[in-house]
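Please go through this chain and its backbone structure tokens and walk me through the local backbone shapes. Keep your notes short.
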Amino acid sequence: MGVTREPGEIRVEIGELALHGFRVDPERVSDAFERELTRLIRTHGVPVAAHGPLTADTLAGLPPLPAGLSARRLGQELARAVHEGLSGHGEVTR
């Protein structure tokens, strides 16, 4: 029987969240993004970091998002896209 080790801390640092073509309050988007990403990590973890620390310089291959989203919805969708990348979907540059 193997022992599953849960990480003691997961830290995600995002240097810049660029919102080109969206007419929303960036602070509200950032708040919604942080809340949703925290929820997703608590619920699902970060599978690509299961075998030890991971540093990703770039997360690419994220899907385009419609420009008409509210700030809350845009933050949530961005968090889901980033979490998908951290879950092994998309391209991670280390």
